[in-house]
C-alpha cells in the first residue's frame, strides 16, 4: 500500500481523538482505522510498532499545538519583561485549552509512559526537547526567568490545564486571572512585581 503524508496525518489525528476519548487502552491499530474511516490494516501499515505510533502522535501534538508565527511576533513586539512573559504564558494556556482533544491526548500519553517503558522513552525525549526549546526561546527573547522558573511554569500550566479540561476546583475564576497570579507568584520578586499591570 502506498503511503502518503495526508493519510499519515489523518491517522495521527484519529489516534489523538481515540486517546482523548478512550484513553491509552483504546489506542489500537483497528481503532485508528475506524476513527479515520480507512480500510482495516491501514494504521498497521503506517505504524508497525507501538513506539512508531507514539512517535507519530507526539510529532502531531507538536504540530497542532505549535504557536502561530504572527502571534509570536506580536507577543515579542513590546518591551521584554514580566508583562511580556505573562502574555506568552497566557497564549500557551489559550492554545492548549482551545485544542482540548490534543492536550488530553498528551496527558494520556504521559500517563501511559508510567506503565510502558517504550512510551516513556519516546515521550521523555519529546518532553525534554520541548523544555530545552522553551528555555532557549525565553533566553533569546530576553524574557525573565531561567530554567528553574520555566520548569515551575510547566508544572503550574500543566496543573492549570488539567483542572480546566477535566474537573475544576474553581471554575468561576477566569483562566487569565490564574495566569496573572502564577506569573506574579513564580517569577523572582525583582522580576515578578507588577508583572501583569500592562497585560490587559
Automatic annotation (TrEMBL):
Transmembrane segments: none annotated. Keywords: DNA-binding. Gene3D superfamilies: Tetracycline Repressor, domain 2. GO terms for molecular function: DNA binding. Residues 28-47 bind DNA. InterPro entries: Homeodomain-like_sf (IPR009057), HTH_TetR (IPR001647), TetR_C_31 (IPR041583). Residues 5-65 form the HTH tetR-type domain. Pfam families: TetR_C_31 (PF17940), TetR_N (PF00440). This is AcrR family transcriptional regulator. The lineage of its organism: Bacteria, Bacillati, Actinomycetota, Actinomycetes, Pseudonocardiales.
Amino acid at each position: 500500500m502506498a503511503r502518503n503524508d495526508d493519510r499519515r496525518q489523518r491517522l495521527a489525528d484519529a489516534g489523538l481523538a481515540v486517546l482523548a476519548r478512550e484513553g491509552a487502552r483504546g489506542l489500537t491499530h483497528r481503532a485508528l482505522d475506524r476513527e479515520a474511516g480507512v480500510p482495516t490494516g491501514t494504521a498497521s501499515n503506517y505504524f508497525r510498532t507501538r513506539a512508531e505510533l507514539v512517535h507519530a502522535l507526539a510529532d502531531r501534538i507538536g504540530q497542532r499545538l505549535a504557536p502561530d508565527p504572527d502571534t509570536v511576533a506580536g507577543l515579542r513586539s513590546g518591551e521584554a519583561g514580566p508583562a511580556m512573559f505573562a502574555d506568552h504564558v497566557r497564549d500557551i494556556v489559550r492554545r492548549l485549552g482551545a485544542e482540548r482533544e490534543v492536550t488530553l491526548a498528551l496527558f494520556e500519553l504521559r500517563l501511559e509512559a508510567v506503565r510502558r517503558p517504550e512510551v516513556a522513552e519516546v515521550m521523555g525525549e519529546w518532553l525534554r526537547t520541548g523544555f530545552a526549546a522553551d528555555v532557549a526561546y525565553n533566553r533569546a527573547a530576553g524574557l525573565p526567568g531561567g530554567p528553574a522558573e520555566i520548569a515551575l511554569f510547566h508544572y503550574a500550566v500543566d496543573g492549570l490545564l488539567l483542572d480546566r479540561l477535566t474537573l475544576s476546583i474553581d471554575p468561576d475564576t477566569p483562566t487569565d486571572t490564574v495566569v496573572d497570579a502564577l506569573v506574579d507568584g513564580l517569577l523572582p520578586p525583582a522580576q515578578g512585581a507588577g508583572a501583569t499591570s500592562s497585560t490587559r
